[in-house]
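Bench log. Compound arrived from synthesis this morning; before running ITC I wanted a structural hypothesis for how zinc ion sits in the protein. Inputs:
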Amino acid sequence: MELVKKKIFEKFIAEKGLKSTRQREIILEAFLATDRHMSIEELYLQLRDAHPTIGYATVYRTLKLFAESGIAREFQFGDGQTRYEHVTQGEHHDHLVCVGCGAISEFTNDAVERMQDEIAASHGFAIRYHKMELYGLCAACQK
Amino acid sequence: MELVKKKIFEKFIAEKGLKSTRQREIILEAFLATDRHMSIEELYLQLRDAHPTIGYATVYRTLKLFAESGIAREFQFGDGQTRYEHVTQGEHHDHLVCVGCGAISEFTNDAVERMQDEIAASHGFAIRYHKMELYGLCAACQK
DNA sequence: ATCTATAGTGAAAATCATTTTCAATAACGG
DNA sequence: CCGTTATTGAAAATGATTTTCACTATAGAT
Ligand SMILES: [Mn+2]
Ligand SMILES: [Mn+2]
Ligand SMILES: [Zn+2]
Ligand SMILES: [Zn+2]
């Protein structure tokens, strides 16, 4: 799974005439090693201990590249920070966001997905992607 | 309809011990007069001709108040600008966003709304609100 | 292995939307 | 009309992100 994403990114790099650098490898490792919805700052801070020389701007640039290459998806959950998550080929999910603790969980629902396509079609819209986020209190935060 | 919103805002102002100012009235008029999903800048620029003395910060502050009072809803459609739309009591809709021309259209779908509640419930989530946006090309932009 | 052209990097500066500060002004109950 | 308190506009501050730039590293060619 992670290997597949590495391959995809290497291919992307090669085809774009970009270069494979030590920093990109390190950031990719760190990104693939988490299953959270990481913000740029979070990833930067986590990286900093083991790799103090990697700059903030490089993390920004690299995460953007991940998104461009298709191995990452960019998000805005309303806390002012851009977050990134893994994209797995052929998989799609949406999110539940806790307004209490900020926890982000995932769900899939085929019926809703289908209906979204129908809604778009019925409006003559050629849908590219969608965003569906349910905000509320997670079980823990309700107590 | 617009009158109702004015009343709601007046009530909000009164209950909060805030003051009814000329600027707030003007901005409210302008906001209620449009049916678009206006960004703060758009509203500010539109206002500027007739009311050159109203400051940017006041527009910001006032739109936030509208949202707080319940007559407006705040949005982020990914273009980096916060947008506001009218909120009509008891009404809810979601959005289709054209990635070509930026046009924003609206739709409602009760079945999807219900399913969202079910999804949240099945995850032990106490849902507060949701965000569902379908991004793609509008009919005009497909040509 | 060395050279060369070009992409990438880190640090600092620049952007851009938004928020805050502050001195001056306006609203409103008495 | 007064005094108190909220509001305003302009400018400065903020915070996330992006750009700039001098220097470095990569990768293909020699
Ligand atoms: Mn996710
Ligand atoms: Mn709308
Ligand atoms: Zn929570
Ligand atoms: Zn369009």
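What the model suggests: Residues 118 and 124 of chain B are 10 Å apart (CA to CA). The pocket of manganese (II) ion (ligand 1) is lined by residues A 37, 85, 93, 95, 106 (CB under 6 Å).
ITC booked for Thursday regardless.
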